[in-house]
Design a protein that fits this description.
Low-confidence stretches: 1-15
Helix content: 40-55%
Shape: globular
Mean pLDDT: 89
Radius of gyration: 21 Å
Largest sheet: 7 strands, mixed
Strand content: 15-25%
Order of helices and strands: HHHHHHHEHEHEHEEHEEHEEE
Length: 290
């Protein structure tokens, strides 16, 4: 619960005026410094409407009042995560950019050293949103394990937004969201709800146990991701960062990639002009220099 001392008599959020240019600048600079996301002037209305939820919850009457609370010691402790949850965009699908999963199956997995296969191939879904990407990876890798004796893997899935992580852990999705999943995989890996009128399915326990979900902020100095990884999926995430932040982040990713490891980016993302130890091997797929 928030501190009742925050409430101001008569200053209900419903009476608050719009966000001023100065207030937008304060928020956008704070958000960029805190989680790397750059907001252009075109995002002012979006930010204003999303933060309105927090003003209502905290019973604050203006954006400036909310900003002053947010940057206070108490706000940084109690409100920062909630603010990030409402301003981050979470758009994802099962088998999004399907060519990546074909390349993974046909070119990456067959070339992984046997000792690594036996010890367990480590994959990171960085910016996993509500879980469709890591669960797609789990399906593809489990299918591969059916034909590759002894193949073991684990998937780390991280996001800055706590709300989507909680949803991802549950692994429950509207049936319509599962349309891109091949029929045979649906039969193996999706559980239907007994109440069919709800129109939802759940990821089977085998796949849920293969994925570890954790909150992570890319602006942290170091990442607690354990041993080096063979594969990192970070798709449609760095587009929200400026070029300097992109370069810094991608070099950090490379520190956690095995030599010869792979980085998968989103369809609109490029490493052009960035000083990173990665070589392009296919469209938006890169390999770390040995």
């Amino acid at each position: 619960m928030h501190d009742t001392s925050l409430k101001t008599t008569g200053s209900l959020a419903s009476k608050s005026s719009g966000m001023s240019t100065r207030e937008f600048t304060l928020f956008s600079q704070f958000i960029e410094n805190t989680c790397g996301i750059r907001l252009s002037e075109a995002k002012k209305f979006m930010l204003e409407s999303r933060l309105q939820k927090r003003l209502r919850y905290l019973d604050l009457g203006s954006y400036r009042e909310y900003y002053d609370y947010l940057v206070s010691k108490q706000g940084l402790r109690d409100e920062l995560v909630s603010m990030i949850d409402v301003v981050t965009t979470n758009k994802t699908d099962f088998f999004r950019e399907a060519a990546h999963f074909s390349y993974l199956t046909e070119a990456v997995l067959p070339g992984i050293p046997e000792v690594e296969i036996l010890n367990g191939v480590r994959i990171w879904s960085a910016g996993c949103s509500s879980g469709e990407e890591p669960y797609t990876l789990a399906m593809v890798l489990t299918e591969h394990a059916r034909t590759c004796q002894g193949f073991r893997f684990s998937i780390l899935a991280t996001d800055i937004c706590t709300d989507v992580l909680e949803s991802a852990r549950l692994g429950i999705y509207e049936e319509e969201k599962t349309i891109p999943i091949p029929y045979e995989m649906k039969k193996r890996y999706l559980l239907r709800c007994k109440d069919k009128s709800r129109g939802v399915v759940r990821i089977c326990p085998e796949l849920r146990s293969a994925v570890t979900f954790r909150r992570l902020n890319f602006m942290e100095e170091s990442f607690d991701v354990g041993n080096p990884l063979r594969i990192i999926f970070c798709r449609n995430v760095i587009i929200y960062f400026d070029r300097q932040t992109q370069e810094r982040l991608l070099n950090k990713f490379c520190r956690y990639l095995l030599p010869g490891g792979y980085l998968f980016l989103g369809h609109s993302e490029t490493l052009s002009g960035l000083d990173v130890p990665l070589v392009q091997v296919s469209s938006t797929i890169y390999r770390k220099s040995a």
